[in-house]
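Record type: monomer structure entry
Structure origin: computed from sequence
Chain ID: A
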Amino acid sequence: MAESTFEAGRDSGVAERDANVPVPAAATGGPISHAIFRLARLHRMFAGQLLRRIGLHPGQELVMMHLWELGPQRQIDLVRLMDSDAATMTRTVRRLEQAGFVRRRPSPTDKRASLIEPTAASHALRREVERVWSQLEDISATGLSDDERADALAILERLEQNLVRADAQPTEPDTEH
């Protein structure tokens, strides 16, 4: 494992381990899916450790990024932007509000809705979020050349598009089982 990954892991109590985790027999039909699952879990774990130091939980920084970039948003618009669900977004916004990073104000165009907007305190947090994301990127891509980073990003985007296309297509019932 790369040194910076080990250092981050050691600081958090995570032991260094081999990146070649054996694929369980039941998952041999999906080695890429198994690797994505493992990678996503580890990435979220490291993100959580880094974000916790600045008072955030994974996912909250993404909501803040959208608010900083787009300005005040209705909660339903945040749900759509994040491809989230209403209950998760309600909890996220409530926690960000309790932490003083967002506030709600009435929508000037829709009396039933309120707008979620970043506070001055959250603007001070932005630099820290950007630093955490750079650190997470460095940990994740340690040892990769610029070309390998570009290739990895292109492959991940292609995998994402495959799943987006599959989600848009009606599923056929599985008649083999």
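Annotation 1: Helices lie at 3-12, 31-52, 60-70, 75-82, 86-98, 120-140, 146-168.
Annotation 2: The beta strands are 73-74, 102-106, 114-118.
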